[in-house]
Please model this.
Amino acid sequence: MTAGLPDELLDRPFAAVREACAEVAARARRVAIDPAALERFADAIPAAELGRAATLFPALGGDAEALAAFVLCLDALNFGSGWFPLLRKRPGTSGYRTIEAALRERFEAAGPIEARALRVLDARAVAELLGQAPVAPPLDELMELYARALRELGERVSVCAGGSFAGFVEEAGGSAAALVRSLLAMPLWRDVARHDGQPVPFLKRAQIAVSDLAHALPDDLGRFRDLDELTMFADNLVPHVLRLDGVLRFDAALVARIEAEELIPWGSPEEVEIRACALDAVEQIALRMRDRGRPVHARELDEWLWLRGGGPRYKSRPRHRTRCPYY
Model:
């Protein structure tokens, strides 16, 4: 089911992500971590603001099946930032919040989308669901990918759990790593790049799905014993925050390309270095905070940094844009 993925990634997914990203950070040529700035930044993080979920999940009557379906469908669609400047957004709302709101309204008005219905969705139906119809190139590429992602999810849940989203989560037995492995059976979740010939896993959507399920589901289903092993959810917003706050330094040519809103190709050396250095920086921030008696994990820091990125200072400057099904 997961042919082509390194054995270490399947056996130790979170450690594999950390180790690969640390190696990239150590040899990166276009992005660097500023150690002194990182220490100052870590020491200034207000502990009281940590632990807030980046997404507020709908109540859906406390129905675990409906909540699991919502989270898994949302994270199946939790990518597309490279197309978001073209997305028809709701007033004052980001691309992600636009997608989230449309899906939430569908679930609240008509209940969950069943796995069997996901299996036959096409791009036109997805565009209508998300308020993007009619759709023109190149946004049609994103709608095709969204439809494929939802079809993959519907197929996987049908095969593994008889169509039950809660059952799909339960199959993991309270193990975040096991749930990540199950998600990686779907090709569009296999967020693994290469740098200098070596595999570099990020697993952004698979990891954030676990985190979101832990926030949304009742304790008996949403409790994962290895939740604190999750890494940062490597996207394009957290690196942007860390760059503007001085923790990351990009070379001048890369900054110029980002400021000009040039697309940065997925899997290119600079794109991998941006994500890997951000992930390693968050690991270093968490370690410094723990060493100073402030217990914190990468997952909490990611959510805090992501919410921070919604501020005017960060939204007023371009961040890197990449068109891929991973973030």
Notes: The chain has one domain: 7-315. Residues 7-315 form one domain. Residues 163 and 316 are 43 Å apart (CA to CA). The longest strand covers residues 192-195.
